[in-house]
């Protein structure tokens, strides 16, 4: 269990006028010196605004890029502070060399971004000396950056042991969603796992076997499983050397009473390009010069029927080459089914991963899912069942 901002605000001593260190993810994409996607800034708003509105001196900790322990003027957070101010519609200050004196003279209710935490060589090494210095800057610590929670760094882990620690609103929402998805979900549970390589998702698939009732494998990953079952997948992207691992996983799934769903009809083409000539065939009818680029209509319809029997869905990875029409059809169709079931209130749907977010946005349903995580590495490690240092440190 972890404490949240509610516990911090309810503290009998209050936070008005007190410095609160808040770890956010401000590692945003930049183009020509401007933020090109402010979604992470918007995600930070609720926590920062709530603390400031309660009179705290909000001190924002974040990293940007990979300066590798050395100040780099190209990676300063100063322009990010300006962009954050624009998004929040209120003044946001910046401190390049923070000390307690500089913080003491800040106004209650102010928001100030501190310089890139990775400018300090001890940040990524999780050095105690740096942690002790940073702890002198604040009276409380709030972690609102789930996307960095898989890293044991000073600003993501060590500070939580030196100051009273709490989860910010974005972190709280993420942890509650993940708990609903795999921690203590309503069954039946389905998981959609796609992507190009089984090798990158083996730990995910293995962990899910004991958690879900239906494992839907899509993307080029499915080709490896089909090939392991003796199906000729033509020129499809396939890790033939993982046939034994794929078969072992399917055998383990059977023992765990987990149904593995592989496509039985697929969309194939001889070229990997948008609008390439294509046809839909049974998996046993793939020509030697063809490659699988999407799941067929019949298989998608069957998968939609599976989702209609489920109460919980976890989704990571597309079903096909969704970046190229018409090979986005299966991903879009199943995503829209999941979104409709979520709107009806019969399905809790949690999705995460960069390609997944892009695919759901492409399908126009990202806002209809119960929760969509933008945390790449942390979300994947959570799906692998790994303990996340930044989350563990918050547990009371």
Q: How far apart lie the N and C ends?
A: 6 Å
Poorly predicted parts: none
Helix count, DSSP H or I runs of 4 or more residues: 15
Side-by-side strand order of the widest sheet: 5-6-4-1-7-8
What's the CATH H-level homologous superfamily of the largest domain?
Phosphoglycerate kinase, N-terminal domain
Binned strand content = 15-25%
Envelope shape: elongated
Q: In angstroms, what is the radius of gyration? A: 23 Å
Biggest beta sheet summary: 6 strands, parallel
CATH top-level class of the largest domain: Alpha Beta
Number of domains: 2
Structural class: alpha/beta
Number of E-type strands: 17
Describe the protein's architecture and organization:
The structure is a single chain. With about 400 residues, this protein is of the alpha/beta class. It folds into 2 domains: about 160 residues, Phosphoglycerate kinase, N-terminal domain (Rossmann fold, 3-Layer(aba) Sandwich); about 200 residues, Rossmann fold (3-Layer(aba) Sandwich), CATH 3.40.50. About 35% of the residues lie in helices and about 15% in strands. The protein contains 15 helices and 17 strands. The protein has a 6-stranded parallel sheet with strand order 5-6-4-1-7-8, sandwiched between helices. A 6-stranded parallel sheet has the order 11-10-9-15-16-17, with helices on both faces. Helix 13 links the parallel strand 16 and strand 17. Helix 11 packs parallel to helix 12. The chain is elongated. The chain starts with a helix and ends with a helix.
């Amino acid at each position: 269990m972890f404490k949240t901002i509610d516990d911090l605000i309810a503290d009998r001593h209050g936070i008005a006028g007190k410095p609160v260190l808040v770890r956010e993810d401000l590692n945003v994409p930049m183009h020509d010196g401007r933020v090109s996607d402010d979604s992470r800034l918007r995600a930070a708003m609720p926590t920062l605004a709530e603390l400031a509105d309660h009179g705290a001196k909000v001190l924002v900790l974040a990293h940007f890029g990979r300066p590798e322990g050395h100040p780099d003027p190209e990676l300063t957070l100063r322009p990010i502070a300006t962009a954050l101010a624009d998004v929040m519609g209120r003044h946001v200050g910046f401190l390049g060399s923070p000390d307690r004196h500089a913080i003491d003279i800040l106004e209650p209710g102010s928001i100030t971004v501190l310089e890139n935490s990775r400018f300090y060589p001890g940040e990524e090494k999780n050095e105690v000396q740096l942690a002790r210095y940073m702890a002198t800057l604040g009276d409380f610590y709030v972690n609102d950056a789930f996307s960095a929670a898989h890293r044991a760094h000073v600003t993501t882990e060590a500070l939580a042991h030196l100051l009273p620690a709490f989860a910010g609103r974005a972190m709280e929402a993420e942890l509650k969603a993940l708990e609903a998805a795999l921690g203590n979900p309503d069954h039946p549970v389905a998981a959609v796992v796609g992507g190009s390589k089984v090798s990158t998702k083996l730990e995910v698939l293995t962990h899910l076997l004991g958690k879900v009732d239906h494992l839907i494998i899509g993307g080029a990953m499915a080709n490896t499983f089909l090939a392991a079952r003796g199906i000729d997948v033509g020129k499809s992207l396939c890790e033939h050397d993982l046939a034994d691992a794929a078969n072992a996983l399917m055998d383990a799934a059977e023992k765990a009473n987990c149904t593995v769903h592989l496509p039985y009809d697929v969309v194939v083409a001889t070229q990997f390009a948008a609008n390439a000539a294509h046809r839909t065939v049974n998996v046993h009818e793939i020509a030697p010069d063809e490659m699988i680029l999407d799941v067929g209509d019949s298989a998608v319809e069957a998968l939609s029927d599976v989702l209609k029997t489920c109460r919980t869905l976890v989704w990571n990875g597309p079903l096909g080459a969704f970046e190229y029409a018409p090979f986005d059809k299966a991903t879009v169709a199943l995503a829209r089914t999941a979104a409709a079931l979520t709107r009806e209130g019969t399905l809790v749907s949690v999705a995460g991963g960069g390609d997944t977010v892009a695919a759901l946005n492409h399908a126009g349903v990202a806002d209809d899912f119960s929760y969509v995580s933008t945390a790449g590495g942390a979300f994947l490690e959570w799906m692998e069942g790994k303990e996340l240092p930044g989350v563990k440190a918050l547990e009371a």
